[in-house]
Amino acid sequence: MIGLGLWQLLDRLPKKEAFLVQLAANPAKPPMAFPRFPDETLLFRRASGLCLQPTDIKLAGAGKSGFRAIAECRTGAEGPGMIVQLGTTRDPMAKVNWSGGEVSGYISHAPDGRSLIGSLFDHTPQRLMLVADTPQAGLNPNGKPDIASVPNNHLAYAGQWFFFAAIAAIIYTLALRRQPR
């Protein structure tokens, strides 16, 4: 348990902090074409893409904003296509009509329906999504990118492992004291 705490503290925490510094610099980088394949290092980067035709538009929960309208798009290129967050709405029954087109915004993670346990066994990278700057089809604007939305729990995880080690040591000490001599 002490080894796991040291791993979180000395390995995972510095790597995560360096990753967050990189993500914080991404919005200032020049815009790029939306990537064809997932790459975590591109989160919060400005990008644009062409949605030739939306194949599906669904609503997904967005907390205080209500629901996000998310379109799966054909791009004309072979590959996974593109996911676009068109905007938000408070209406859970909203029908979004959008025929596609050029979209500019920033890169984020697409919603992922995998459960926590399922994600332990499925190592497929999470798909990326283009969050539109300008809301489409009469929707409300999307929220701005926020680096604080990327969790950095490694210090807490290290403390948790050290706490578990301390509790195990106390239990072990108590068990030794109760043994008959």
Can you put this structure into words, describing what you see?
The protein has 181 residues and is of the alpha/beta class. 30% of the residues lie in helices and 26% in strands. It has three helices and seven strands. A seven-stranded mixed beta sheet has the order 1-2-6-7-5-4-3, with no helix packed on it. A hairpin with a 5-residue loop joins strand 3 and strand 4. Helix 1 packs antiparallel against helix 3. It is elongated. The relative contact order is 0.20. The mean pLDDT is 90.
Oligomer classification: single chain
Count of beta strands: 7
The percent range for strand residues is 25-35%
Tell me the structural class.
alpha/beta
Radius of gyration: 22 Å
Strand ordering within the main sheet: 1-2-6-7-5-4-3
Order of helices and strands: HEEEEEEHEH
User: Main sheet?
Assistant: 7 strands, mixed
How would you summarize the topology of this molecule?
Elements: H1 2-25, E1 32-33, E2 46-51, E3 53-61, E4 67-74, E5 82-89, E6 101-109, H2 116-121, E7 128-132, H3 154-178
Parallel strand pairs: 1-2, 5-7
Antiparallel strand pairs: 2-6, 3-4, 4-5, 6-7
